[in-house]
Design a protein that fits this description.
The protein has a 3-stranded antiparallel beta sheet, with no helix packed on it. A two-stranded antiparallel ribbon has the order 2-3. A hairpin with a 5-residue loop joins β4 and β5. It has helices at residues 4-17, 26-42; strands at residues 47-48, 51-53, 59-61, 64-66, 72-73. 42% of the residues lie in helices and 18% in strands. It has one domain (4-73). The chain is globular, with a radius of gyration of 16 Å. It is α+β, with helices and mostly antiparallel strands. The chain has 2 helices and 5 strands. It binds zinc ion. The site of zinc ion (ZN) has 6 residues, from loops.
Length: 74
């Protein structure tokens, strides 16, 4: 798989983020931020831009995001 390490880190991050934020201790939080740093450093971002064309013919753009690490870009 392309960038399997990124995929593994994303899975880990998603699992960690299921735990309530208020119950996370500083070490727990630092692990999440280390994963974020890893993703930022090593993900070759593939950014997806969503443009929806509704009935009023106005284009609305939602934040684009990386399909690999889910990072959002504004
Ligand atoms: Zn990415």
């Amino acid at each position: 798989m392309d960038q399997a390490d990124i995929h593994a880190m994303c899975n880990a991050k998603n699992a960690l983020e299921n735990y309530p934020e208020k119950d996370r201790n500083p070490v727990y939080k630092s692990i999440i931020s280390m994963i974020n740093a890893y993703l930022d450093t090593y993900c070759k971002h593939r950014v997806i831009v969503h443009i929806s064309d509704d009935d009023s013919r106005e284009y609305t753009m939602s934040p684009s995001y990386c399909e690999k690490c889910q990072k959002t870009f504004s």
